[in-house]
Amino acid sequence: MFLDETYVTKRTMPTHAWTPKKKNIQIDTKECQNEVKGIITCIYREEGIQLKRVYRHSITGPKFLSFLDELRANNPFTDMMICMDRLATHFSFATRDRMDELGFLYTYSPAVTP
Description:
Blueprint: E1 2-8, E2 16-17, E3 25-26, E4 37-44, E5 48-56, H1 61-74, E6 81-84, H2 88-91, H3 93-102, E7 105-108
Parallel strand pairs: 6-7
Antiparallel strand pairs: 1-4, 2-3, 4-5
Helix pairs in contact: 1-3
């Protein structure tokens, strides 16, 4: 299972889209929400998206721990190995202790990945 998070802000919205030559379409960013959204998702290779949560603002340590609790509650008897990137929250003692308590195996992606 792969776990990753992303953030959506007003700056992540495109200001232009591809169009035929000499015809630019502009997007009015005033109509886009400008509040930050933190999105965290777990994906199985075989089953697709297992769990997805959208948070207002960034993903903090407590939010991440809550996500792990919910993931285990949804899959109480499933052996899981979670592959995560190297976000500091994933390396914290609290996170590693909680994953051990919940019975998750876990690993991290290489330090340099595209």
